[in-house]
Design a protein that fits this description.
The structure holds 2 protein chains of 2 kinds. Chain A is mainly alpha-helical. Chain A contains 10 helices and no strands. The model of chain A has no long low-confidence stretch (mean pLDDT about 90). In chain B, a hairpin with a 2-residue loop joins β9 and β10 (about 210-215). The two termini of chain B are about 35 Å apart. Classes of the chains: A mainly alpha, B alpha/beta.
Chain lengths: ~250, ~300
């Protein structure tokens, strides 16, 4: 356990030591989205009956930040370590592939949750936000960041250059998070795009997370949790299999 | 007691490139062992397989009796590796780096030993300095310290003195020698053959993924090099001695390669017979570089 804990602690400190860049910057980005979209659409759009658009927007933005930062933490840490060569320091010790996985995953969840909490804390002072089911908020926050943390580990292992990881982020993570109902309810979409949205696992993360605040959602939160949970199990299985083989880590 | 390192028929392929073509060797506990070879001979690949950084395509490796794949935890606990590349984590200080490295090996409170290693490597004053701010030589010392945090019985140093100044090189060797005297098994790769000659009790030479020589250092020196005789003569070299001429130096001196010391008498007799006066004479000891070149050319 000491090996796992040490690697987790190191990964935690790695982002915490540069928290201006890894925590404050994404919180500021989320606030800018809120200001711009809130200003442009408040009063014109009512997604859920009786709920102000800016209130509707906050959980989506918070969850989007959680997901993007969980992914970024695991993927950039691993890719940088590989590029700088210091990955050797965690490959030489007797750490198992499970310890390796859990340490990177929990640090990714940690950063996601800290950034998400930061977005919520920065906004609740001036925009009213109910909290109907806090446990659902917590469950979706942790489960969503775990899925993206695992995906981040896969991307970090796979990427050998900065541009490969940037492609992963820009062509997979950003579209998945932006087209998941952060800024709108998918009920407003055409049947075709509703179907497409239902194929996006990030949609269920955002929808379930939002249910925790408003008690209203596009899909049943229990179904969302099952889908997010199944995504996590599948991705974890894949990641553990890659780590056990030493794919792109041990040649 | 099992050997410190046991390599059995290890081969490694990277696509069409055969980096190792069936290497077998055994390093006993407490040995100071040298692994020599030109660039691309497979030294680093072999070390990577010992350390679990690469996986053998064929064959097996044991560290202190523990298979590096099936029993990787015990094998890695028994091994400390100083990598060839000057790598570091720019987020942390020297002490943090060593505390983390200890933790990865399951050591929770390793302060006393970390302080001792820092002291021995003259790093105490830099303990709280960020790794980024260290010179290349200091970073190299930290790499050595990282390999030692868990007091491994077997220590592998992959070209530890590449690009290192004389002072650090000597300090490093004093420290490594002391570790060897204390019972640690040391495996060293280096391109500085005089270092290997001075330090290693036994040497393996690799070429194109194969072992082309493996023996005690003194046996290698005796077996392959004979001796060298440098002469400055009052007249031309007798024709009878020309087959032994290895080099005509620019300053007029001649270097003869002889199979052994006894052959010196034959040279003297030939010179007397031809009435050629000897103005200067020097017998050179064979060194590892001669042996190395000879073996590599033959293999």
């Amino acid at each position: 356990m000491t090996g796992f804990y040490t690697l987790f602690h190191k990964e935690w400190l790695r982002f915490w030591k540069v928290s201006v860049q890894t925590v404050l910057a994404p919180v500021l980005t989320a606030l800018l989205y809120l200001m711009v979209f809130g200003h442009a659409l408040a009063g014109r759009v009512e997604v859920f009956p009786g709920i102000d658009y800016r209130s509707f927007l906050i959980p989506g933005l918070a969850m989007m930040s959680v997901l993007q930062n969980s992914f970024a933490n695991a993927s950039s840490s691993l890719m940088q370590s590989k590029m700088q060569g210091n990955i050797v320091f965690v490959l030489l010790p007797p750490l198992s592939h499970r310890e390796f996985f859990m340490a990177y995953l929990l640090a990714a969840v940690g950063r996601g949750v800290v950034v998400g909490a930061g977005v919520l804390l920065a906004t609740v002072w001036f925009i009213e936000l109910p909290l109907a089911h806090p446990l659902w908020v917590l469950m979706f926050g942790v489960a969503g960041s775990a899925v993206m943390g695992a995906l981040g580990i896969v991307a970090g292992i796979q990427s050998e250059k900065v541009d490969q990881l940037a492609a992963f982020t820009n062509f997979i993570i950003l579209p998945l998070t932006f087209l998941s109902g952060v800024f709108y309810s998918i009920q407003s979409l055409s049947p075709f795009w509703q179907l497409v949205s239902h194929l996006n696992p990030v949609f269920y993360m955002i929808d379930g997370f939002r249910y925790g605040f408003f008690g209203v959602s596009d899909t049943s939160p229990a179904l969302s949790l099952v889908i997010v949970g199944a995504s996590f199990v599948a991705l974890s299985w894949l990641t553990l299999a890659l780590l056990k083989r030493g794919y792109k880590l041990r040649y | 007691m099992p050997p410190a390192i046991e390599v059995l028929g290890v081969a490694k392929r990277y696509g069409s490139l055969e980096a190792l073509a069936g290497v077998s060797l055994s390093v006993g506990c407490g040995e100071f062992f040298g692994l020599l070879g030109p660039n691309g001979a497979g030294k680093t690949t072999l070390i990577s397989i010992l350390a679990g950084l690469a996986r053998a395509s064929r064959g097996s490796v044991r560290i202190m009796g523990h298979d590096v794949v099936d029993n990787y935890r015990e094998a890695r606990r028994a091994l400390g590796v100083v990598p060839q590349e000057l790598v570091f984590d720019p987020f942390f200080t020297v002490r943090e780096t060593l505390v983390f490295q200890s933790g990865y090996f399951g050591l929770r409170d390793n302060r006393a030993w970390i302080d001792e290693v820092l002291d021995n490597l003259d790093l105490t004053a830099k303990a709280d300095t960020n790794m980024r701010a260290l010179s290349g030589g200091m970073k190299r010392r930290v790499l050595v310290a990282q390999a030692l945090v868990h007091k491994p019985p077997v220590i592998v140093l992959d070209e530890p003195t590449a690009g290192v100044d004389v002072e650090l090189r000597q300090a490093l060797w004093r420290f490594i020698r002391r570790l060897n005297r204390d019972g640690h098994t040391i495996v060293l790769t280096t391109h500085y053959l005089e270092e290997a000659e001075a330090l290693c009790g036994r040497i393996a030479m690799l070429k194109q993924g194969r072992i082309v020589a493996l023996d005690r250092t003194e046996n290698l020196l005796q077996m392959h090099s004979g001796c060298q005789l440098v002469l400055r003569l009052g007249a031309a070299l007798p024709v009878a001695l020309e087959p032994q001429l290895a080099e005509r130096r620019e300053d007029g001196a001649l270097r003869l390669a002889l199979p052994d010391y006894a052959a010196v008498e034959g040279v003297m007799a030939a010179l007397r017979e031809a009435q050629v006066a000897v103005q200067e004479m020097e017998i050179l000891q064979p060194d590892l570089e001669d042996v190395f070149v000879q073996i590599m050319n033959k293999a």
